[in-house]
């Protein structure tokens, strides 16, 4: 028996209790009614009051809801179950024995991720928003479980996490189990289906999931990842928001949300997060709008250099001044200093070392400071360098001449530490602003490049099923319509083959969706190999495929279907050392005189497919003149 099973049996795992458990049991029954749920809710005054408050908050200015039955009716069984589950877990674990675990912060983050998952689900449409809410709420519950079951050990683990080792690795190393395993067990106990729980298990590192790009699990795991990063932003201090916003803009672009749309979703999530937090007595800070955070200046902490060290080119022909200034720059201000004695040598050295700051004397042999500055500004690479001119002259005309030559600032000789420090402070601020701007520009370029790739993929997805590489349903229907119209014009026959992978749900349930995706890919390749060159093959649903055969009569269509069936049956699919037997059932229909549209032929093929599956699967069935005829399997 595994460690988690032992804890589950002993009742040590965090789980809904009391009224929440009763509501969950009711919701699982097919014959359950909302009246029955309302009667159970009424036994818990706290839950009743919170549910009424939520119902009236959603009711706006309409008539107040005062009846628990009406509140349950308005919210629905799913919302009531989620509310009860959230109340139960939060009420049980507002604090705990693990002193290094931030219980209020954990629940605040979990609530934010729950609402973000729900709202992103309304955009991406890969799952019921209420189900996604529950998944977001429980996505990190394994960490709460570890803090509850091993409070002392987990305190020591969290306290020593500054070694750089990933949290999961530390958990497995010191406790023999990690929070992802606990999360999976608790979600199973709460009735979360495996099709949702499996993506949740990989949301911290989506690239490790192995889900096929474009598949539903792939979309779900990235949805949960983005919801978590939104929660991270919502709870991050002001100084740490700048990088998170850039990442969210990039993630939003990948699901078709521009900056404005992403901001609207985020602001909506924040408002709902605060409402839920008030109901559950969980902390939730006030946040500015997403637009305001995105437009805020880069925090000073991000502009300040980690060290004062910068590359400085000092151009000075007078040895005493050069040595003294170099010492102040190097020893006191911590700069990396390069020196030259005239403008000509300095120009060559500047191209070699690319200094960020240039300090140059005005009067020098060979090439003076003004000529050097003009030559520097004439190059592309020299335009962004910060130039300070050293001069013993300070008349207004001379200062204007220096600035017109491209100088950014000037310093009167003899050079003093106070004066140099003041000029360098301004120069360093400029350099950091420039670096921040260049970093932002690089991020924008990366964002634009990845968005362009995403747009190309979206364009390709408009005609192609991403998982199998076959045309998707709309493209398949268009091919069927074209061949149907051609058949009506020319009188040539046309056939439709509806193909369904047998017992595919059991493959997903037994081996997981990642394996199921690989099975679909293998079947798609087999169909492409077995089909004729002019046949049109498409994936029209989860495990359903359509083959359209033009200029094909009933006998030839049956032979084609049988060839496809045998090709799939002969597949040797072995994943992780496990052989996965695979077969398909095929329904065949041809255009008959009584059929008015291509949809009539599709319905006939679907009836034949149903007959093949009803007869035992791994069969071919033909629909002709209102009847189906099944061929035996081999």
List the helices and strands and how they pair.
Elements lengths: L2 H8 L8 H10 L5 H8 L3 H15 L8 H25 L10 H22 L4 H10 L2 H9 L1 H9 L7 H9 L3 H11 L4 H8 L14 H20 L5 H14 L4 H22 L9 H6 L4 H4 L7 E5 L3 H14 L3 E5 L2 H11 L3 E5 L7 H9 L8 E6 L4 H9 L4 E4 L4 H45 L11 H18 L3 E8 L2 H8 L1 H18 L5 E4 L4 E7 L3 H16 L4 E2 L2 E2 L4 E7 L7 H17 L5 E5 L2 E5 L3
Parallel strand pairs: 1-2, 1-3, 3-4, 4-5, 11-12
Antiparallel strand pairs: 6-8, 6-11, 7-8, 9-10, 12-13
Helix pairs in contact: 2-3, 2-5, 3-5, 4-5, 5-7, 6-7, 6-13, 6-15, 8-9, 8-11, 9-10, 11-12, 12-13, 13-14, 14-22, 19-20, 24-25, 25-26
Query: Within the largest sheet, what's the order of strands?
Result: 7-8-6-11-12-13
Task: Enumerate how many helices there are, as a single number.
Answer: 27
CATH architecture of the largest domain: Orthogonal Bundle
CATH classification, class level of the largest domain: Mainly Alpha
Structural class: alpha/beta
Give a count of the beta strands, DSSP E runs of length 2 or more: 13
The coarse overall form would be extended
- How many individual domains? 4
Rg computed from alpha carbons, rounded to a whole number of angstroms: 34 Å
